[in-house]
Each structure stands twice: as C-alpha cells, then as structure tokens.
Amino acid sequence: MLDIRKSSLRLIFALFALICGSILFSQWTLSEPILIEDKAGEANVQFWAERRTLLYPGECMQISWSLRGIEAVFINGEPTIGSQRETHCLTPDTLPVLSVIFPGGAQHDYHLPISFFLSRPVGILVLVGWAIGLAGWLTITAIPARKSEVTPLPEQPIQPTPSASDAATIPTQPESRLEAAFQGCLMRVGGLTLLIVFLFLGLEGLLRLYFSVLGDETNRIRYVLSTEEINQLPSEVIPLPGVDYGMSANQSGRNRLGWRGPEIDLPKPENRFRIVAMGASTTYGFTPPDESYPAWLERTLREQFNLTHVEVINAGVIGYTTFNSLVSLPTRVLELEPDLVIIYDATNDVLTRDVPPECYQGMNELRGVDPRLYISFPFAPPLSRSVLMRFLSINLGLERDPSILNSRTANVVYECAPGIYADREVPRVGHDSARIEQNPPVYYERNLRSMIGIAQIHNIRVMLPTWAYWEATTEPGPYWRAAIDEHNVIVRELAAEYDLLTLDYAELAPQDQSFWSDYIHMNSAGSRHQGEAFAAYLVEQGVFADQ
Question: For residue 24, what are the contacts with CB-CB under 8 A and spacing of at least 6?
C-alpha cells in the first residue's frame, strides 16, 4: 500500500515539474524574434533581436542592425557601424537603444520592446511550481522502499478432511484474484484523486495568498474578488442613453458630471473662454488627472500666455469612437457651453472597420453604426470562486477578464448575411487584419463632418488636429498604420474644406520612446508636449485676441 502511494505521489510531482518546466523551456526557446523597420527618404533602418521574450534578466542574445543612407548610428550611446551583429546581456534597465542620425541632422531612437518572463508574476509562479514539483519528486524518490519481513507460521496440526455435509458450512476464501486486482485499482485511483485534490488545494492557497497580499487591485479583481464584491466596487463606467456609456462620477479625479478634472461651473461664468477636448483614452490620458494633455493645455495658456480666463475641460472617454463622440456632442458637450471643441479621434475607429465587409458595407442592420456594439447594458457573468481556475481560464482566453472596461457588458451579435456575424468580442487595438483595408473610412468621415456641422450651427469653433502615435512600434501591422494614415488624410481635407483650426500633430509629435506609455498613449512628458503645442498654435492663430 505504501509503495502504491509513493509511486502515485512521485508521478504527480513529476507531471507537475514537467508541465512547469515545459512552459519555462518554451519561453526560453520558442519566443518569436522582433524586428523594427523604418524608412525616411533614401534612408532605411532595420533593427532586430533573436527573441521578444527572455527568460530572466541578464540573459544574453544576439542584437543586429542594418542601416543605409544615414549619417551616424549609436548603440546605447556608443558609436558603431551601419551593419553589425552583437551579443548583449540584457536587463530591464539596459535594453538596447539604436540612435540614428539621418541626413539633415534629425535623430531618431529605436527601442526593442523586450520583456523578461521571470519578471512577471506568472513567470515567478511557474518557476516556483517547477521547483516544488522537482523537489517533491526527488524527495519521494529518495525514500527507500520498505522491505516486508515474512514471519514463518507455526506448524498446525493436520485437520481431518471435512465431510460433504460439513463443506457447506465452511466459509469461502475472502477474495479471488480478480477482486484483489479490483480493490488495488480502486486504491490507486483513490490515492491519485487524493493527491490531485491536495495539489489543487495547495496551488489554490498559494495563488490566493499571492494575489491577495502581493497583487495590485487589478489582480484582485481578476482572480480573487467575487462577482458580488466586484459589483460593489466604484465602477469605471456607467451606461448612458444614446452614447452607450460614460465615465462614472464616483471615481477620484472626476467631477460630478463624470468628466476628468475639477468641478465645472454651470451656467458658464461671463468673460470665460471654455475649450472642451473630445476624444477617447488619448484625450482622457494615461497620466494623473492634472497631467493629461487638456490639463497641460489649460496650464500653458494661463501660465505662459497669461490667459487666466481660459478653461479647458477634458471630455475624453476611454474606448470612445466617433460614433460615441457624435452623440456625446449634442447630448452632453453642448450643455458645457464651449467656445471651442477639439476633436482628437482616430485609433478606435480602426477597430470599427475590423469586421467582415458584409457587416460594414452591406444592406444590413449594422450599416451606418458602430459594428462592435460592445457596450449595451450592465452584465455580470458568474465568476469562479477558485483563484486557480480563474487564473487559468482568464490567461488562456476562456473567460472574460473582469478588470477590463467592457467586462461587465453584454455583446450584441448580429447576423449581417447568412452565416456571417459581427465580431462577438472587441478586437485588440494592436490587432491587424486585412479586413481593415476592405472597409474604407466612410463612417469616420461622416461622423466628423456631422460633428463639425453641429458645432458650427451652435457658433462653436472646431480644432481638428491629426492623430499621432509612436511610429517605431512593431505591435500594429501595415493595415492599422494605413488606416491611421487614411484617417489623418480625412482630417486634413475636412479642416481645409471647412476652414477649421488644425495642427498636423502627427508630424509634430515627439518620437522618442521616453514620451510614450505605449505606442498609442503618451505619458506625462508627451502629454505636456501635446498641450504646449496646442496652446502655442491657438495663440498664434489669434483665437483669444478678442477675449
């Protein structure tokens, strides 16, 4: 019996170590390469690494670059030649930076977005799991097998052979060989089941302790809190008529209307010039509330240009497209009594084009509206009480992440043509699909044109800048980039057609990675650059000359 349990326990630990070890090995050997390519006139830049993900900080790998038509090149600040392959041992603080000086003196820095698996919580858990499995297997293997001692039976006197009449009263043998094998099988199954239960409970306890004590709020929402507890948390967004949703007023850094920033005086005081910045998360800001680009715009106008009567309201809403903004303008923004609106939308409208052409262009229910329809009404799917099960299901994509914006909403699915459905899930921002190219930006143009018309009818000036992103990124592919270019062309054409205030910020935005939180959202330094650039442009155009 002891040997059976020992074998079962050794098998469990071996399988556990094998699974965790396979994950570590795959991260070490199967990570895809990363390539950054750029062109500027006759200049060409290629910068690549063998792997996007390294196993641990300090691991070494090959870094290569090939450049043509440039004046000078530096790797981590040291001058080098235009084509080279080197081995670098990397840490999060020493990721390679390729600095290129183009003809004319312009400099561009290229950063390889390399990550380290064992620097993530999941990597640490996998490593700990592998160590536990290996240590358990070695420990059980090292335990010597028990040797059974056979004690000789004392001699028994010979009993007389029973008669036929007595045979019926003699009990049969307790077990046959078949029964003994069946009982042994049940014991093995029972032992394995018990070991699996103990292993499950151990991992459950470790994960619950880790995410409860060391995890941040996002991890606790994902893996620990129940549906009821999540629903009691202050919500990020609330359902609103017409616009689908808006930012909730019960979050810090927002006013009673749900806009980001201080309270708003209504009605607007006399002699106040009010600017309302509209858009999505790139307007709302991946920064503290007082360091978003609208906040920097107001601060710059007041402190550098002494325009203390100018006020800027941040009306950006995370996830909005021009479909949402078009409805928000007459229903929510006009009540703010703006003198000028700044419309800064582009990237989320790329996602509305990433659907089958039948859903975008054909004669169907979706034609002319946002095909995603991903926020409709509150919805709280039941979440597993098990931290381990939620950890596995969320990371494997089998369960919706309760910490994301639209996690507690229901998707509305439409059949655009026989057997062809609009996407059930929202595409990722970095998703790149050929369907984007098949669906021209007709609704993006129509929505902007309608917003311009609404603003002008109400004697509100419009500023329509082009939309910028970190162009050295390798995350989105050619269709996404082409779509952003198409959207910016539309912005330039509409600005010229309606004689709008406009700034080609796509050409002006800094391209050093130190200004960006990711390839879409600027950090505080980038937001300051944007706010200061917008302020200087508005002053230069004499917007406040009569104020």
Answer: 55, 117, 126, 127, 130
